[in-house]
Sequence to fold (353 residues):
Amino acid sequence: TPLLAIETSCDDTACAILDANGTVLSEALLSQESHAALGGVVPEIAARAHLDILPNLVDLTLERAGLTLGDIAHFAATTGPGLIGGLIVGSNYAKGLALSQGKPFIGINHIEGHILTPRLPSALADEGITLSFPYLAMLVSGGHCQCVSVEETGHYRRLGGTIDDSAGEAFDKVAKMLGLGWPGGPALEKLATEGDDTAYSLPRPLKGRDGCDFSFSGLKTAVSRLIEPYGKAALSHRVAADLAASFQRAVADVMADRAEHALALAPQATALVVAGGVAANRTLRARLESVAERHAIPFLAPPLRLCTDNAVMIGWAALERLAQGERPNDITIAPRPRWPLSERQPYRSSSVE
Ligand code: ATP
Ligand code: FE
Fold:
């Protein structure tokens, strides 16, 4: 009884088919390249691209699994949060498929997808670990930065989040100041390996503060002040590398501190999990790993392709709900650009038996 899932909340168009126990039968993902030249995701362009790509991508995913539409038992799609144009395209397409086949449609919260993915049977297979509740999930991506205690499927306690930029945005903006391309995170990390991370003293916003909120805009401003004196002249490689390393260290410091505070708020956590594109950063990983070690719990990060946006995570979140005995049919729910995890959609109200 396979399930087909679609993800279109940002600039990746993705489709995946999973069987009932979470084995990935096939997947296809296209990252829209056009945004790089524009220095960021342009919502209108992204929505049109999703519309262009999606039909072929779904066909390709079915073909790769050796299945036809008639074999699919459930259709799932991201219905928020995210860029509304893409959400409308993806969820309407999935709803259309569901209606055409007389099968249920399941609307999934994108963040729920990210934070449940480490439980996908293949996610941590290398570590030989199956993740049980409750655990602490730090979601650090281009669009999100928050800390959630995952108590069980559908029961999430948000411990804190960013009060300004996401961690990914901070990396991208600082990378831009340093003259690196977009997305900036990977380029900044690479440059930082050549720099001295103690060269500049930068602020650690909210470090030591109670709770688990994040703030990055002050850090970003501090970097821009340091760059100001150079005017329009290109930074020397040395200065840029030192700034990159110092910035990255400041972010990792703050993250480690926030993780400590989060674990104080969720002392029963059985593991510390990171997800989101920024989880690729090795300095950050190392720091979080040492926090987990101090608390004698494992530090887990799914492989990067499952950390960044993908459709497997949407399919998995749908399967988790089905496994709980829910029989959702969300055909009438509308996509939401903002959708806090605490609001668990009017799932049941629209249930049909
Ligand atoms: P979201 O997942 O929140 O909808 P998104 O699609 O922008 O948004 P991801 O694809 O998960 O997010 O992550 C992209 C972000 O991760 C970018 O901001 C990018 O700069 C950052 N990133 C990627 N690799 C690294 C790295 N090695 N170090 C730091 N940041 C990184
Ligand atoms: Fe995402």
